[in-house]
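User: Hello! I'm new to structural biology and keep hearing that structure can be predicted from sequence alone. Could you demonstrate with ATP synthase subunit c? Please show me the input and the output so I can see what each looks like.

Assistant: Of course. The first part below is the input, the amino acid sequence of ATP synthase subunit c. The second part is the output, the predicted structure written as tokens.
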Amino acid sequence: MNYIAAAIASGLAALAASYGNGQVISKTLESMARQPELSGQLRGTMFIGVGMIEAVPIMSIVIAFMLLLAK
């Protein structure tokens, strides 16, 4: 049962992160189209945001492994 719970938690975290990354990148590209002179600053901010979003599934995997190995 623990394996199923860990798999569901990791899968949902990955799904949520992929949706969040899609939203961030979409809005950044939309902003770059509106104001091309800010594209460098927007790109840097986008990479920071994507990095923070990607931290969530990594932490989810770590917590899932901790729960699986804590017997």
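User: So the tokens describe the shape?

Assistant: Right, they're a compact way of writing down the 3D structure. Reading them back into a model, for example: The CA atoms of residues 13 and 57 lie 5 Å apart.
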